[in-house]
Design brief:
mainly alpha
């Protein structure tokens, strides 16, 4: 019955989940580092008959957690948990898996009240920010060392004797292990300034929306926004009334993009840049001073703003 419940949990998910991969990630979060091919043999060797029932109960409990790590909407979140939920969403956006043993262990401890929300927010935020720089922007390939690093941290968390030791271990992982593997700014900037989104260039839309949302949230002191209600606005319009002399790649550049609500998007419409700035100055939304202070808006200004956003992103918004 318990085994069938694990399968049912995964079958009800809107995400394609593998029971074998789940058991492998569960194993890595508690036991020695092995490949998935060697999992069955290792499991038979370690789990004795007397331990089987407890092992299966742990699998059943953590299968529910594993599902909502991949599918955050499968869990009900309270207000304190929204940042945790959003970090899980971001990891799915980045399409990463190496971190799963640690995230599974952290969320299991959270469900058992062995870790507080603030500690979970901190470590998940650090993992999110690390992979934003390392994976999403710098496109660095992670060797087996990254997977081993996460699995070891998960094991140490599981084996720590008390809450204080668990928190200390997570902080050391964040401040030493993750920080030591961050890409340099020189490795980060080229990928960031090449980010594009327009009606013709849609491949990076979700990543661009995520980036603009995080920058907005970091700098805005007003009411928190619902990202799903916000739209991406092109400062130099995609279809100007008269030629702007800009290439499609320049119009689509992240340096030409801001995040606004739908009402404001309708007001800005296809207006000239100078008209848009006047509207933005009196709107109740955060827009960076580079845009608000600009007198002209061409290729040079767009590229300059893209580099300024890149520097702010690396140093401030996605700090580990």
């Amino acid at each position: 019955d318990k085994w069938n419940q694990i399968h049912q949990t995964f079958e009800e998910s809107q995400v394609e989940l593998s029971v074998s991969t789940f058991i492998h990630h569960f194993w890595l979060s508690r036991y020695e580092y092995i490949t998935e091919k060697k999992l069955y043999k290792a499991l038979r060797k370690r789990i004795k008959a007397s331990q089987a029932s407890g092992f299966l109960e742990d699998l059943e409990k953590e299968s529910v957690i594993y599902r909502y790590i991949y599918e955050p909407m499968a869990r009900k979140w309270n207000k304190d948990d929204f940042e945790i939920r959003d970090s899980l969403r971001a990891m799915n956006l980045f399409r990463i898996k190496q971190q799963l043993p640690l995230i599974l262990s952290v969320m299991s401890h959270y469900e058992d009240h062995a870790l507080k929300a603030k500690h979970v927010r901190a470590i998940l935020g650090a993992v999110e920010n690390f992979h934003f720089k390392f994976t999403a922007i710098a496109s660095q390939r992670s060797s087996g060392g990254i997977s081993f690093m996460y699995a070891l941290a998960a094991r140490e968390l599981h084996q720590a004797n008390n809450g204080e030791a668990k928190i200390k271990g997570l902080q050391e992982f964040q401040n030493k292990k993750l920080a030591s593997k961050l890409p340099t700014y020189a490795e980060f900037e080229p990928g960031f300034v090449e980010l594009r989104y327009s009606s013709q260039m849609t491949k990076q839309k979700n990543l661009v929306r995520y980036i603009l949302t995080k920058i907005y949230q970091k700098n805005s002191t007003g009411i928190s926004i619902d990202p799903d209600q916000m739209t991406i606005e092109h400062l130099a319009p995609e279809k100007p009334a008269k030629s702007s002399g800009l290439l499609p790649e320049q119009v689509a550049s992240i340096g030409n993009l801001v995040l606004v609500n739908q009402d404001l998007n309708n007001k800005l419409a296809n207006k000239e840049f100078s008209e848009k700035v006047e509207i933005l100055k009196h709107a109740h939304v955060w827009v960076d001073v580079v845009v608000l202070d600009a007198k002209n808006w061409g290729a040079a200004e767009i590229e300059s703003r893209a580099r300024l956003l890149s520097k702010d992103a690396y140093d401030n918004v996605w700090s580990v």
